[in-house]
Amino acid sequence: MSIVQVMDASYENCHEAIEKIFEQFPLDIDGKRIVIKPNVLRSAAPEEGITTHPAVLKAVIREVVKRNPASLIVGDNPGVFSYGMNEKAFKDTGLMEAAGIYYRNLGAETVQMSINSPYIESALVSRAIIDADIYISIPKFKTHGLTGLSCAIKNNFGLLAGALKAQTHKKAGNPFNFAEALVEVFALKVPDLVIVDGVLAMEGNGPASKDLVNLGKILAGTDPVAVDTVAAHMMGFSEQPRSIQIAAAKGHGINDLSKITVHGKLEVIHGFKLPQSGPPGGAIMESVTALRPKINNELCTLCATCIEHCPNGALTMDEYPSVAPEKCITCYCCQELCPQKAIELK
């Protein structure tokens, strides 16, 4: 039986919820090497709801430091290629200030690891996370056009350094296969504790949507699959996202709500908008792969970020970025990384 905590919180008082979480899920931190990984998709202001909020990260750091770790590292591998963008993303999101002396670019030191997947044979993975005695993941409560939701399992995709994320999208080739690859990456280092920032949640076509919900919740648990199961239920998925199903089938956690003890109020969020593709399970894969990026010319600033990061070269610059449908592998990296939120899925 797995336990998932669902707590009311605001960014002003989230430290109280975080303190209770560390009491509910005690970790043997004293003298241990700790890594905390927030969700830092890209540069964005905290109020955009794209990344973990600095107040949540700061509260988690405080609880860890109180327990006398031998070392503490805070970092992520954002979905960008260059070293300098990692630091910029942390500064722009306010997470650099929250992390303080504990910040580290997790892509700066890596280890080669074999992966049992037809889509990834091996990968460069952040050494700090692999070597950590305790690994704490702090994802956002968000939807995701490719995976259904972006929560505990998806946050582990940040274990991959730099351009390997884009390469994985390309090798998987479609959302159905990507779910399998994602779970294999997730399994490289399953978090010991997951704390989900759901104070400001994201609905619609996340993970960089303009549609935000003042949910006022923080979720937590030591079973990441159970945490994602609860989050997906709250979002209103009628069919569980494929990544959750695969992770549970491989023994990484529980996805049966009847076997999950929820402390707090569990209810489906009224009117919560799911991605246009719906949950990426086998029955609706045709609708998922039919979607293509659509550029909003009024919002587009011609920065070419989408073109630079398309793993399959499906975007080129005409008057505005243009999509070649036959090359698009529906990874939606362009939508994730567009700083102006000028890309929609149609």
From TrEMBL:
Alphabetized UniProt keyword annotations: 4Fe-4S, Iron, Iron-sulfur, Metal-binding
InterPro entries the UniProt entry points to: 4Fe4S_Fe-S-bd, 4Fe4S_Fe_S_CS, DUF362, Fe-S_Ferredoxin
Domain 4Fe-4S ferredoxin-type: 291-320, 321-346
GO MF terms, alphabetically ordered: 4 iron, 4 sulfur cluster binding; metal ion binding
Coiled-coil ranges (or none): none
Transmembrane segments: none
Top-level taxon in the UniProt lineage: Bacteria
PANTHER family in the cross-refs: ADENYLYLSULFATE REDUCTASE, BETA SUBUNIT, FERREDOXIN III
UniProt protein name: 4Fe-4S ferredoxin-type domain-containing protein
Origin species: Desulfosporosinus orientis (strain ATCC 19365 / DSM 765 / NCIMB 8382 / VKM B-1628 / Singapore I) (Desulfotomaculum orientis)
Taxon lineage: Bacteria, Bacillati, Bacillota, Clostridia, Eubacteriales
